[in-house]
């Protein structure tokens, strides 16, 4: 049962990260930090503008690894914990800039999902 849940969460998290970073990075959402209207502006709000590309490459790479972990189980722990760390920092950044709690919810859900995925690797 946990294996099926883990695979489903891996697909959801992986595809969501890719969607946010590749297809929706230039679009406004109600979850963007501060008053940012796109992902680059959100990174400026956090004071991380210089790291936008680096963080994007890391997140998308981890998302691809997480998707691959559906078929290659050895990738599951490193990819899920990697994304979990990134999401923990994202939640922290929302609090750091004084965002409303709702703005940190997507990152919080992804964090918990990744921890469930990582836990599922325990034997």
Domain count: the total is: 1
What average pLDDT do the residues reach?
95
Structural classification? mainly alpha
CA distance, first residue to last residue: 14 Å
Strand content: under 5%
Please summarize the sheet with the most strands: none
| CA-atom Rg in angstroms | 14 Å
Low-confidence segments:
none
Count the beta strands.
Answer: 0
Please provide the ordered H/E string of secondary-structure elements.
HHHHH
Helix coverage percent: 55-70%
Number of helices: 5
Backbone shape: elongated
Structure description:
With 123 residues, the chain is mainly α. The protein has one domain. It is 67% helix and 0% strand. The protein contains five helices and no strands. Helix 1 runs antiparallel to helix 5 (105-119) and helix 4 (76-96) packs antiparallel against helix 5. The chain is elongated, with a radius of gyration of 14 Å.
What is this structure's SSE topology?
Layout: H1 2-23, H2 39-45, H3 52-68, H4 76-96, H5 105-119
Brief write-up:
The protein has 123 residues and is mainly α.
Features:
123 residues, 5 helices, elongated
